């Protein structure tokens, strides 16, 4: 199957996609199961913001549907009124669209089916496949048994149909307090699969639902709502994560007892990413505990956080494609994601110069009032992006780290008496170092420039070992820059409990640099571009923190590619 994906820059990639889920779907299409139709869905619960794990599921579900000219709906599985909100519904729709997918007219809510689900429940009561239980929640748990012990029947299990219908209708009518009754499926308390031990279908919750208001005070559990919602919508392939494998017999049981056609459920491994957690609940706890600035904190693995950080939707889709879909749970190294983000940005990000930690440099032999404009290349990977002119003058800023008064052996950049090249401009030589009289810190450098070296070559053929970026002080734009590291200092924080999760956060995950100096073309940066600051990485404007008189940039990703290093080490090992 050939798939076209549009990407920034206008070119398209054509790829043959294949994995065990796609193979199963293609097989069903060939054998005309479901009349050759393909219908999938992405079914988030609106109880948090989407993260990159959800992106894997979105790319898979929308991808499969489009490869077969089928339908993929966006269905909010909103059966739990206590932690669902329309804020989450809005953010989920925004994120799915941003990632590049469109559900068209197929927007669905499980809460639209509350009446149908209620009728399904009555149907099961009538056929003696469901009963109202009045045990307490604790007793229900105790009666359920364990993996090694069978459960035992509730004393309420043999209520008559008439009694059950009357109680269930009373539950709906609001006659009972929370916890007094539940509706359960009547299956088998001795089943080896605990999901089949008379699972709860409905509970009483006297809470306002963000969509249905106070209309209902009984709510179906996810396990009862999910399969029936799929069936009501005509879903053919219900693609979900591995933890639902043991729920499949239950979903089948409900649909069989209701005589409703089944979708085919196919389970795949969820994405785990190193140094972060992919669980809305745990991410929500970080937000609530004030450990991050919000769901869209640029350190969060949420789609809104990644968008704010400058990750492109193309790179997230490429990432999902690269990791593929498998049946076994693994953890993907964050360095791979960063590698893919970098690769995409390399092709489309304009190059600019910005000095993160400025050191003032005066060119003693450069005239005071003179300003020259040097021509700089916007992207060496893409000549169509053209050039720009950058002002050069007597006082410049260089990067503090690019000067060393007492350079160690392999330090080739600026040092007393040494000459370096300024990108797109001249050779300069450090003549004198000015120190702060109190602290002794290097405060300023006095240099000379060689007027014959414009463009970076000396007519006498002499060489320099370093090319540095710079900004003209008089023309520079002030900015605050935020640098990010891994959110957690441990590799697999997802294994930690909520209680100790926060204590494993990386205290150096956010570093704020003030007084950074950028070239003047960044005075009015484009809000949807990511730039490469030469030698420093990729950066984008922070849409939330920037204002008319304050410019804030986020570093999307540094230039150093740890993934490439991991790969080349692996390669070397194999060859030895
Ligand atoms: P979370 O634990 O973050 O709340 P969830 O599975 O409970 O995740 P849902 O809102 O139910 O969240 O997820 C919607 C869909 O996204 C489901 O089909 C689910 O299987 C899928 N999904 C969630 N997390 C991942 C993940 N890490 N990798 C792949 N798919 C995922
Ligand atoms: Mg869930």
Please give a quick description of this structure.
By secondary structure, the chain is α/β, with parallel strands linked by helices. About 25% of the residues lie in helices and about 25% in strands.
Structure characterization notes:
The protein has 576 residues and is of the alpha/beta class. It folds into 4 domains: 4-109 and 226-271 and 309-336, Rossmann fold, CATH 3.40.50.620; 115-222, Glutamyl-tRNA Synthetase, Domain 3 (Glutamyl-tRNA Synthetase, domain 3, Alpha-Beta Complex); 354-469, Ribosomal Protein L25, Chain P (Beta Barrel); 478-565, Ribosomal Protein L25, Chain P. The strands form 8 sheets. A 7-stranded mixed beta sheet has the order 14-27-28-29-25-26-15, with helices on one face. Helix 7 (222-233) packs across helix 8 (248-257) and helix 11 packs across helix 12 (334-348). The two termini are 39 Å apart. Adenosine-5'-triphosphate binds at residues 43-45, 53-54, 56-57, 240-241, 270-271, 278-281.
